Amino acid sequence: MYISRVKLKNWRNFVEVDVPLRRRQFLVGPNASGKSNCLDVFRFLRDIAKPDGGGLQRAVNKRGGLSKIRCLNAHSKRASEVFIGIEISPNDSESIMDRPEWIYEVGIKQSRSGSVFISSERVEKNDRPLLERPDSLDEGDKERLQQTHLEQVNNNKDFREISDFLGKISYMHLVPQLLRHFDEIQGNIMEDDPFGQGLLYRLQQANKKSRDARLRKISGVIKVAVPNLEEIRFEQDPLGKYHITGSDNNWRPRNAKQYEDQLSDGTLRLIGLLWSLLENNSVLLLEEPELSLHSSVVGNLAGLFHKAQKGKNPRRQLFISTHSAELLSDSGIDGGEILVLQPSLISGKGTTITPSVDIKGIKALLKIGEPAGPIVIRRTAPENHRQTSFSL
Length: 392
Fold this sequence. Notes:
Layout: E1 2-11, E2 14-20, E3 24-28, H1 35-49, H2 55-61, H3 66-69, E4 82-89, E5 102-110, E6 116-125, E7 128-133, H4 136-140, H5 160-167, E8 170-172, H6 176-180, H7 199-205, H8 208-225, E9 229-236, E10 242-248, E11 256-258, H9 265-279, E12 283-287, H10 295-298, H11 301-308, E13 317-321, E14 338-343, E15 351-355, H12 360-367, H13 372-380
Parallel strand pairs: 3-13, 3-14, 8-12, 12-13
Antiparallel strand pairs: 1-2, 1-4, 4-5, 5-6, 6-7, 9-10, 10-11, 14-15
């Protein structure tokens, strides 16, 4: 399955958004346009779908409350409701005209007392309604509206497939310093490990056969991307602690072993990225994967993402935020795979999300064979960006 459409109202930067989605989706826009907030929509749905993670109330509270989620640009009375809707299609669905298999929608409001409650929740499967809330039971017991049915195993039997799917969404934005200094920060790993602090633990928990197979594939990429660094392994030191190790053939006549605290930022980020691609078989959210990597390596990431979506496992869906023209320079990327986030200069309009192929000036250039990526990056650059160096 994959998320084939998302609809948002009053979510963070977005007053109202309705956009079709592909299995590989690049998010491009100026700083603070809402790329991270767009990715957080899917993390929010994951948090709701995981009952052991606290469901709706926990998902809202960890983001600072509904006032921090609600779009500041929305001024109408209807702005009191934050709305998220998604359509989920089967993997063999190819055309945007295909009907989705599932529709899930949830609206959230805040009472005068400050508590968060469900204003609406709806589920459809193949055009057949399965859930419509509030219902008569909700009317008789308002406390029920503090939880979605998505998070309740007693109530989601007919659509648990959605809950399981959303609960497997993962996010990776590896911060090398957190991995290197894991012991110094006393092993505190954030929930769902968004910054790769627990990468060593994730490798340790993986089945040995699967782990070794993945590391062989990662080693093949590392040999090409990182000069002199060869095989990537996972092994214990004399004290029994596990490490990611790399063989460096440049230090000594015989290969020298480097632990993760000696590997470069770019190497660690690439290892974490590759592991996430091989580990995940659902939706994977990536934040600026080009960071710390040489531009020649970045130019090959799109092809790497495409290859990771093939194979025996069900197709993964990838959402990738980026500012990199090199990443988007791959000729295999089409205009529909690039979503352009454009903040409005008009109060109350918020940020729009548009497939680049539907933007007038870009559409014409794509028709004559211009590569999509560099066009979009130029289009999203701040209008007076050349004056930055004169601003201090």
